[in-house]
Structures are given as C-alpha cells and as structure tokens.
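During the practical work, I selected for study one protein's amino acid sequence and its backbone structure tokens, as given directly below:
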Amino acid sequence: MRPWILGVLVVLSIKSWACEPLPAELEAIIGNNRPLLLGEIHGSVQAPKWVENIVCNQLKQGPTILAIELLAEQIDVSGNTDQLALSVETSFQWQQLHTGKTSDAMFELLQTLLPLRQKGLTLVMFDDHGSPRAWRMANNLKPYLHHDSRLIVYGGNWHTKVNHDTSWSESTTNMGAYLKEWGAEPLSINLLPSGGSVYNNQEQGPKVYPVKERQLSKDRILISASEASGYHWHLNIGQVSPSLPRVR
C-alpha cells in the first residue's frame, strides 16, 4: 500500500473515532455501569447530537450498546450506510409515522454511529407498538440489562422515567420504571431544552411546535431533578431547532 493511501486511511479512522470531551460534571455522573436512559422531546437537531457525543465517549471506556426507540423491522443497521438509507426509504415508519423519531437528525445519528460498530458499538431498536407498550419496550431491553457491554437507552422522555407516572391515568406505566423494578438501577437523564421548536406529532398533527421557554443558565449543564419527575437529572441542551422527517 502506498504511504499516502495509508495516511488517508489513518486520518479517516481517527476522524470517525473522534468526539468532543463531555462536560466534566456530566462525565462524572454517567461514569458508572448502570443502564443510562436518555430521554428527549422528539424532533430536534440538538438532542441526537448530544446522544452521539455521549455514546462516542462512553465507547472509549469499553463495549457499548445503544438502544433506540425505533421499530427493529423497519430499519437495517446490520450493514453499511447504503443499506441503512435503502431501508429508511422503503420503511412504513419512516414514510408515515412522523413523530420526530424519523427525522433527518436521527438518520444522521445512525449514519455516524454505523462505523463505530467496528469499535465495539452495538445498535439495538427497542420500539414496540403492541399493548401494553411500555412493558413490551422494556421487555425488548431485558436481554441487555446485565450484559457485559454498557447499555444506553435513547427514547422519548416519557418512556425514560423511572417511576410510573399516573398523571394521565391510574393505569399508565413507564418503560424505565419496569427496568428499575427488574433490578437494573437505571440512571435517567432528561435532555431538557431551554426553548426553541421541534418537529413532531401533537394535537394538530405532524408539524413544527414551539418548546416551552425556560430560564436555564448556559453555564449550568446538569440540573438535579425531583424524585416525582421520574428522572435523576436534567441535561440543559439549550435552545433547540426542528429536524424535519427524513422521508417527505
């Protein structure tokens, strides 16, 4: 192999593995072996970027599993980026279910993470539309709870609560609460925007919706969450902007 070709390959390898250091307080909080639950308001540019950087940094500590709230049968993450793109273009979920989970930003996250499988990253899809949904999603994660690899679960911030939030109805259950009941001791971090807008599906259908404005200091990355919230921490991700559906 010619020296200049080898040099290019080395640069590409380093670039694919490079990530910005995490804020020290965030790194200290997540630097343990518990399952890490990262919850978002679906449909922003910024949340998947935070997840990408957290996963990249955690992977440097050892083998890591990233579980994402998508339907396993609707996306192919077993091959290269061409296979990923083809599966997305022909997927019912990505074509029709515009809840913010099938955004450009989410596709770019998957595209970026695919090469890191060679570094010890495993990608798992855990979404489930059957009933009871929260239990079924938790059950999809059950095989990975006591795995040697570090488990990171990325989904909507309702599902990542570690208690059963009955504010909607007395029968409501939460995925993260099941994981806790099964002895997993999850650490739940809510990716909290200070304002802006997101693209997801609410009362008026799929569209861009404003996000509640909050007075969050730019210098304060982590905010302790109340026990009643179902989270351990809020991560201040600042102002967010919408990411539109990948297939539209």
Remarks:
- Residues 4-15 have pLDDT under 50 and may be disordered.
